[in-house]
């Protein structure tokens, strides 16, 4: 019994160390720390009255003095927009799904309209495709590992018909509100300076690959289930296990950011 008590004490102490210490949160001027506290605090926590305005002020000050190329500016602007209408920047799964849906619907509708306007202009399309292929190849050579360059180019070099079919599939999935549906949307947002290939591996032979150019985002329709997400981002390894039952967005930045 004594040994059990000692073991239990060590477990409790270890768990406490892993928990974030917010004992000095009222003195904090750290954007990320205050944001994290507000996301997890009880809705009636009186500290919110002080911390929310402080976070808004800190975000505004940061944006005002930030460098034009600072990638955190967009993220902080989004946080400010959320704080204007909500107690914190915490987003529910339902809200995240709706954000992904609306972004993708707008994007792919625009692409379909552009494709429709270019019917009969195959020469121009072919020329643009060649230019795009050359640009992608140059960028890929500079930013991807040698063993992934050809794979990235192959994934990017789809025919107009294949691209249109994929677009239609994604739009159909976005408009499908059936909770019992067997498919889900995955959106990958590549904020890094490097092209990347996101590998999504499930049970058995269920595997997907998605090429995502630098500073862009791409989406794919996958079967619902548990997957291992893995990629190389500017040479750094990324891996994460995710269970897909609803639309999700995975955002990756430069290593260390």
Automatic annotation (TrEMBL):
Cross-referenced InterPro entries: DUF6759 (IPR046647)
Species per Swiss-Prot/TrEMBL record: Kaistella carnis
Residue intervals of the DUF6759 domain: 161-254
A matching Pfam family: DUF6759
Protein name, per record: DUF6759 domain-containing protein
């Amino acid at each position: 019994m004594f040994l059990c008590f000692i073991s239990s004490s060590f477990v409790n102490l270890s768990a406490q160390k892993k928990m974030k210490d917010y004992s000095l949160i009222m003195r904090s001027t750290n954007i990320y720390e205050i944001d994290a506290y507000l996301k997890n605090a009880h809705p009636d926590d009186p500290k919110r009255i002080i911390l929310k305005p402080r976070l808004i002020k800190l975000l505004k000050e940061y944006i005002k003095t930030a460098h034009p190329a600072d990638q955190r500016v967009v993220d902080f602007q989004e946080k400010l927009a959320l704080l204007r209408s909500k107690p914190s920047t915490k987003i529910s799964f339902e809200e995240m799904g709706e954000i992904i849906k609306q972004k993708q619907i707008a994007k792919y509708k625009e692409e379909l309209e552009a494709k429709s306007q270019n019917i009969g202009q195959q020469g121009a399309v072919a020329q643009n495709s060649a230019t795009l292929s050359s640009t992608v190849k140059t960028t890929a050579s500079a930013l991807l590992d040698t063993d992934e360059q050809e794979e990235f180019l192959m994934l990017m070099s789809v025919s107009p018909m294949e691209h249109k079919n994929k677009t239609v599939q994604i739009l159909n999935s976005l408009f499908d509100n059936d909770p019992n549906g067997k498919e889900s949307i995955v959106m990958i947002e590549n904020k890094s300076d490097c092209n990347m290939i996101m590998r999504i591996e499930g049970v058995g032979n269920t595997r997907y690959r998605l090429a995502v150019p630098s500073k862009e985002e791409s989406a794919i329709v996958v079967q619902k289930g548990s997957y291992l997400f893995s990629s190389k981002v500017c040479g750094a390894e990324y891996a994460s296990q995710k269970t897909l039952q609803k639309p999700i967005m995975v955002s990756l930045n430069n290593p260390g950011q």
